[in-house]
Every structure is written in structure tokens, then in C-alpha cells.
Fold this protein.
Amino acid sequence: MGTWFRLILAVFLLGSPAFLPGSPAAAETNQAKDETQALLEKGLTLHELDREIDRLNEKERGLVAQMADAERSLAELSARIETQNDRVKRLLQTTYTGDRMPSWMALLSARTWKDALYVFEQLKLIAERDRAALSQYTAAHREKAEVSAGLEQAELELRSTRTRYEDQRRTMTALQEEVARKLAQLPQKEELARQMSELNQSWETKGLPLFKQYFKALSETMQKLPELVASTPSSLTIKGFTYTFQIRDSELNAFIHARSPTLQQLNFSFGDGTLTASGREGDVSVSITGAYELETKPKNAIRFHIREIVYNGYKLPPSTMQTLESGSDLSFYPSKLASFLQATDLTVKNRTLSVTLKMSF
């Protein structure tokens, strides 16, 4: 009897206006869930910022070592060039002032063919040594210029890395203070801290490896995109000297799934200027959204830039998107369709990617 009474009471309470959707109690519950979600997402962002800072530290150490090697190489090249300067100056002086003429006169004054042949061979050896000296001198200068350019590039990259490091540290410090302040205000802060740790661990062991696997497979598959044109001639139309390449998201799905078993769990869909790949593998749900952009220099390409990555409902920070994007090439190169083609325009609408191509000789 007590069980039936509790069941009837539960039904009565659930039917009460206080628990109906849109009621103050329901709104308060939804708000609490949203706040918890936001806090866990901030915890994941902190975890990724910390990982990005470690990556930047490692990159800085690598650049410093690279610059030290470049400076040693420059010192060695400068010393080598210095030792060759006097010899090359004398060589050029004797060549252009006519001081070598007596050597050639010896050939003309030889009394026998045997003597002339010997003198000729000696002059040939001298000329070869001279050419080798000039070649080594030129190569040393060229190598020094290349090492200097590399050193300048490394210095620029090091400054950029340090600036990015400082920016990430400031962002991380501010976010740490915000999360600590909000946690301190909650009675269940220990439970939320535990959930944050579990989410970070889940991302590290399941989410990140899965995303890396997806991006690697996507990079490999996108390089095969010209095969789609060969197998589907209707995707490429020609009008005069203008070509138009079009692909619907249904065709893109069929193409990718046929060539990559790894990506069969993902569904690809074109939105308004965007491409989204989403799916589920086991207890992990993923979503990748990005946009195609036309690049004309330094290489004509249709670049894919990530705008959002979501793992089990949690958005990842820009640093994670940049790291994953930089590790994979998801671009499409028109020259792979035909060497004389260049993309001049692109649109993504009505679930279709359309690229305008023109001949370029």
C-alpha cells in the first residue's frame, strides 16, 4: 500500500504546475544545468590552454636551439669565406689583369708536342682548381645568405611564439580566477571539480585521439577529391574558358565514406557558407564546423578553416582548433584537377559547394 501511495504522490507532484515545463522550478533547473555545462566547458578550456602553453614552451626551446645552430653555422661560414677572400682576390686579379698570360705563353714556347701536352695538362689543373675555388666561395656566400634568412625567420617566429605565450598565460590566469570564484560560490564544488577532472581525462584519452584520427583521415581523403570528378563527369561543367565544379553534400558523403572506413561514422553537410561533420562513435559525440576560403597566393587553393569543434556537447577553445588544423591539410587544390586551372570564386549554399575555375597558362 505504501508503494502505491508513493507512486501516486510522485505522479501528483510531477503533474503539479511547479514541475511543468516553463514553470519557475523547471526554469531554475535548466539554468543550473546550463551553468554547470558552462563551468565544465571552462574547465576543459583551462586544460587545453595549459596544453597549448606547454606546446609553446617546447616550440620556444626548439627555436632557441635552432637559432644557436644557425649562429654557429654563420660563424663557421664567415671564417671559411674570410680564408678564401685573399685567394679569390688574387685569382680575379691575375685573371683580369693579364698576369696569367706568361703561363699560357709557356704552352706556345714548348719545343716538343710532349712538352706542350704536359704544359697544357698543368694549365688545365690550375684552371680546374681556380673554378673549384670560385665555386666554393660562391657556395659559401649563398649558404651564408640562406642561413641568415633562416635565422631572421626563426627570430620572427620566436617573437611571435613569445607573444602568443604571454597572451595565452593572461587568458588562462583570468579564466582560472573566474572558475575558482564560481566554484567557491557553489555548495557542490567538490563534485563539480571531480566532473571537470573526468571530462579533461575523457577528452585526453578518447576525444583528442579520435579527432586526430578523423583529421588525418580527412586530410588523406581530400587529396583524392579529383577522383570524384573522374568518376562523376557531371560535377564539372564547361562554358567557354570557364569551368564550374559542383558537389552536393550527399555526393561528398558517398565519396568520403567509400574511401575512408574511419570517416563512415561522420555525416557531412553544407550549410550557409559552412561545412559540418558530425557523428557518434560509442559514447563519444563529435562535431566539426568550418568554412572554405579562396586563397590565390602563395598558392591557388580552397582552404578549409575550422570555426568550431564540439566534444560531447562541450566546445573546444581556438588554440585546440588551430593545433588540429595546422596538423592536417584539408584544402582542395584546383591544379590537381588540371595544371592549367585556377579557382576564382566559390560559394556554399543549398547544400552544394560550387567552385568557379578559369584557365591560367
Notes: Residues 24-97 form the longest helix (74 residues). The helical segments are 2-14, 24-97, 101-108, 113-184, 189-222, 226-231, 249-259, 318-326.
